[in-house]
Amino acid sequence: MVTRLAYTGEVSSPHLVSITERFLCDGKPVGTSLFKDHFWDIYNKLFKLRDSEDDMPHAFAFLTLLAFDLFLAQGVDALILEVGIGGQYDCTNIVERPAVCGITSLHVDHVQYLGNTLESVAWHKGGVFKPGTPAVTAPQHPRVMKVLENRAEEIGTKLYVAPPLATYDGGPDPIRLGIPGHVQQVNASLALQMCNIWLEALGQGVEQPSGDEAISSAMKKGREWSQKAQGFKLTDSMMNDKYKYFVIQE
């Protein structure tokens, strides 16, 4: 059995200074030369295949395609892929079976595309759910939660609500985040739950506290369409900055 560090990729938006900020390998932006090579390779191939002058993908779809090409070439073990606007009609839905889906705190935004109500926004965001793929959400407004639960049932997935960060066991020292603020605590819990689901898929999930069901076990029981996830004991790789990546075994 070979043990090695997981090589991670991340695609997010927008960028602040350089577009390469959207494409991270192990937390660092890809090199400009690497980005240019993949950009022009994809652009030239699409340009040759177009049927008309304007037969090219819009900017976000193009960058999503570029990301897949780039990270496949880099051989990443896991890819964190942020959707564009909404979810239901987002080009990132080309990924049919992700390891896990996550939804952060929802508010009314992009009303021209998602509608001007919480329910409409939640319906679109729930479009990231995939049949049989675990999904985790940050705590939501009751109206949002109801829509997400209905979407989970409609699509055929279990939905879990990330617990407060205080429910995790970080050992004798308090859990410290690099950025202050309540929203960062919510996001950290969401990220921990999603990472643990991915690790469970590799057979390396963190053991849940005694008496609590593991997420994967709860999925098999097919009960309510949403339930609160449980905190768990954090490992050194989750707590300490010097451990940047998860360890995977082959």
Short description:
The protein is of the alpha/beta class and 250 residues long. The protein has helices spanning 32-49, 59-74, 111-114, 118-125, 142-155, 182-201, 215-221, 236-239, and strands at residues 3-5, 8-11, 23-25, 28-29, 78-81, 101-103, 135-137, 159-161, 226-228, 247-249.
Description:
The protein has 250 residues and is of the alpha/beta class. The protein has 2 domains: 82 residues, no CATH class; 143 residues, Mur-like, catalytic domain (UDP-N-acetylmuramoyl-L-alanine:D-glutamate ligase, 3-Layer(aba) Sandwich), CATH 3.40.1190.10. The chain is 36% helix and 12% strand. It contains 8 helices and 10 strands. The strands form 3 sheets. A 4-stranded mixed β-sheet has the order 4-3-2-5, with helices on one face. Strand 3 and strand 4 form a beta hairpin. Helix 4 runs parallel beside helix 5. The protein is globular and about 55 Å long. The N and C termini lie close together (6 Å).
Would you spell out the secondary-structure blueprint of this structure?
Elements: E1 3-5, E2 8-11, E3 23-25, E4 28-29, H1 32-49, H2 59-74, E5 78-81, E6 101-103, H3 111-114, H4 118-125, E7 135-137, H5 142-155, E8 159-161, H6 182-201, H7 215-221, E9 226-228, H8 236-239, E10 247-249
Parallel strand pairs: 2-5, 6-7, 7-8, 8-9
Antiparallel strand pairs: 1-10, 2-3, 3-4
Helix pairs in contact: 1-2, 4-5
